[in-house]
User: Which sequence fits this backbone?
């Protein structure tokens, strides 16, 4: 297997194809990582969530990361890490940005389910308020692995 660094363009292509990543945040030297569905565009990653631990932690410490994998096999995969800053998109001041985030996220299958279904199970019939946020990308890196080409000639076992 050969591992190589990916360009920013290659990282962006992965982020455009993959819808599920792991969001990392931290508070008081304690990391917290959760899966999130997201949509990527330009210098932003958009997420739908509900109020809970990750939102409270990101409000206190807006430095976050998202890690995304695209795995085709044990020796053929790509992994992207994005570092950036959390920015909540409350209404009414971010009405246009929220509509844009929703439009991007709606292109993903069941984009709302992870954020809303789990919280609805805990809350019963209580109304769940959706919360949109974005991550303003500061840095993006990635690695790609590919199987080595078969070597010619006799190989002793």
Assistant:
């Amino acid at each position: 297997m050969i591992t190589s660094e990916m360009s920013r363009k290659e990282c962006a292509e992965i982020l455009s194809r993959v819808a599920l990543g792991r969001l990392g945040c931290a508070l008081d030297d304690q990391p917290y990582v959760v899966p999130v569905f997201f949509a990527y565009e330009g210098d932003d990653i958009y997420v739908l969530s509900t109020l809970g631990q990750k939102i409270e932690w990101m409000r206190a410490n807006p430095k976050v990361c998202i890690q995304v994998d695209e795995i085709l096999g044990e020796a053929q995969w790509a992994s992207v890490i994005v570092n950036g800053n959390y920015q909540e998109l409350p209404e009414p001041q971010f009405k246009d940005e929220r509509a844009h985030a929703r439009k991007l996220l709606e292109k993903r299958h069941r984009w709302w389910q992870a954020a809303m279904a789990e919280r609805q199970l805990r809350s019963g019939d209580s109304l769940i308020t959706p919360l949109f946020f974005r991550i303003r990308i500061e840095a993006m890196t990635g690695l790609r692995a590919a199987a080595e080409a078969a070597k010619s000639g006799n190989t002793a076992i």
Notes: Strands lie at 2-5, 20-27, 30-41, 44-49, 63-73, 76-88, 131-146.
